[in-house]
Design brief:
The radius of gyration is 15 Å and the shape is globular. The chain contains eight helices and five strands, in the order E-H-E-H-H-H-E-H-E-H-H-E-H. A five-stranded parallel sheet has the order 2-3-1-4-5, with helices on both faces. Helix 2 packs across helix 4 (about 55-70) and helix 4 (about 55-70) runs parallel beside helix 5 (about 85-90). It is α/β, with parallel strands linked by helices.
């Protein structure tokens, strides 16, 4: 059974939609960031702070390889997993890559009260969101399907993904 792999920028709904997908399809939800935190005993913020982004990206790649061997999973990834092509390549081997997209304004609204976003701990988070989206856009668009999440409920988004997943299953 192919996995459903959710990619996209932070605040696009990967975790929320992932929970719905797992419940609706009877699959197990695996959150890459949570798995990294569990394995290291550190928060993502602390890994960034103490060891730097490169160390985190290495851990993310190791986890992507480990998780991609599973089957019947809904995999929720961190927003930067697309920065290394090898991550998406290994997740794609046994998974449908679904990218959730949202406008920078929507992302800012969804993430503004969350203190667990190390890349947004800057003076102007809105500009940082636009900059990072611009850098990653082409990589996100490499997904098997892309879904705009602005103005849609998580259930509607999940239904779109389920429909597509069933058609390729």
């Amino acid at each position: 059974m192919r996995n459903i792999v959710l990619i996209g920028f932070m605040g696009t709904g990967k975790t929320t939609v992932g929970k719905i997908l797992a419940k609706e399809l009877g699959l197990k939800l695996v959150d890459v960031d949570e798995e990294i935190e569990s394995e290291t005993g550190m928060t993502i913020c602390d890994i960034f702070k103490e060891h730097g982004e490169l160390s985190f990206r290495d851990k993310e790649t190791q986890m992507a390889k480990k998780i991609s061997n599973g089957a019947g999973l809904v995999i929720s990834t961190g927003g930067g997993i697309v920065l290394r092509e090898e991550n998406i390549a290994c997740l794609r081997q046994n998974g449908l890559i679904v990218c959730l997209m949202a406008a920078p304004e929507t992302i800012l609204e969804r993430t503004k009260d969350n203190t667990d976003r190390p890349l947004l701990k800057v003076e102007n988070p809105f500009e940082k969101i636009k900059e990072l989206l611009n850098q990653r856009d082409e990589k996100y668009r490499n997904a098997d399907i892309t879904i705009e999440t602005d103005g849609k409920s998580p259930m509607v988004i999940a239904d779109e993904i389920i429909e597509h997943w069933k058609s390729v299953h």
